[in-house]
Amino acid sequence: LQAVPRVVWSWTLEDAAMSALVAAAIGAIVYGLSIEHGFAHPVALIAPLATLAAANLSWAPETRSLRVELSDRTRRIATLVAAAAGLSAILAIAVAGLATLPIRADGIASSLDPLLGLKRFGILVATALVVGAGARVLLSIVERDSPQMLVVVVGLVCIVAGVADAAGISPLLSGLLAGVVIANLSTGPLRNLESVLHRGETAGGMLLYGFAGVLVATEPGWATIALGFAIAATRILLKPASLRRSMRIAGEELPAATPLRLASVRQAPLAVAVVIALILVEDSTLARTLLTAIVIAGFASGLAAPLQSWQRRTVSGGSSGRNARPAEPAP
Questions:
Q1: Rounded CA gap, 76 and 251, in Å?
Q2: Dihedral sign from CA coordinates of 157, 161, 162, 167
């Protein structure tokens, strides 16, 4: 984290502040949904609202699908977009996971229990240390064998998630801490591990959305649909402005017609993951309603950049056609 540029930190913190304000503003809608589904107790809304803020954090780190015209400037901007997305993802997992620790979930009668939160946090740290130390040994053994390394990683994730689920802890938060331990204890196998995980991102994202399709509300109401489009609208309105300010701080000027202007609008798959983690900790109608809204917001925000790129190509093509001179007749 010490190598992260200052502009990435400022961009991430600004995005976190905006996400918190958006979660507070949309909280009225969530509160109305909670009353409708019988979760009107204020404590019962802490974890869903924190998860809503976490889901609105970050954005899709990849920029290849935007079909950006490559140059030194766009490469630097794409690198900053990916770096800030990664740091925001860490913050999102931490916010969503830590919010559930002190809550003793019991439907409407949910209550805050600080001692329970400390106990869960202790279990979390102990599990991360044990699994991380074991991972260092196992990863060094299978360092040059990618299939075996993938099996080891999946097994470690299952162990951490199983312990977290038994203790009522977010499996994403436990996985994050275990990853931090592995990253600080291991050295040699990490490069190969990063390559293995990178190749599995697409398949993992497809499985994640498939799992979300099983959990979403089958008959979402108009309030849920409105919540999803409201989240997408706030992303489209607020995220590009934050990106432009951050690029100016970094001394990078965004080209006028580049699709990178909307790179931070696209919702990251992590947004779906944090809500699924909430459902695993406390399965409720409200949590599934939030998941449905987040999926809707993901599809809506994901279409923003391609639509704008198509519109700009259409406008520029039409302008070129109007301004083009007729061809001279052949002699």
A1: 11
A2: positive
For residue 219 the two structure tokens come to 């008959």
The rounded distance, in Å, linking the Cα atoms of 235 and 249 is 21
**Planar angle of CA 82, 84, 90, nearest 5 degrees:** 105
Q: What is the mean pLDDT of residues 121-144?
A: 80
Give the SS3 label for residue 104. Answer: strand
What's the Cα-to-Cα distance from 7 to each of 53, 79, 169, 266, rounded to whole Å?
A: 22, 12, 32, 20
The pLDDT of 208-227, averaged and rounded, is: 77
Identify the band that residue 324 occupies on the pLDDT scale cut at 50, 70 and 90: very low
Tell me which residue has tokens 């497809």.
Answer: 206
Which alpha helices (DSSP H) does the chain contain, by range?
Answer: 6-36, 46-56, 72-100, 114-141, 146-167, 171-185, 190-199, 201-215, 222-249, 270-281, 285-302, 304-323
Q: What is the pLDDT of residue 322?
A: 46
Q: Find the helix or strand (DSSP H, E) in which 111 lies.
A: strand 111-112
Indicate whether 220 pLDDT > 70.
yes
Residues 160/111, Cβ–Cβ less than 8 Å: no
CA atoms within 13 A on the CB side of 185: 19
What is the pLDDT at residue 222? 81
DSSP state of 61: -
- Residue scoring higher pLDDT (185 or 285): 285
- Separation in Å, CA 260 to CA 76, 85, 293: 11, 13, 25
Q: How far apart are CA 32 and CA 25, in angstroms?
A: 13
Which pLDDT score, from 0 to 100, does residue 327 have?
37
AA identity, residue 225: I
220 token code pair: 């979402």
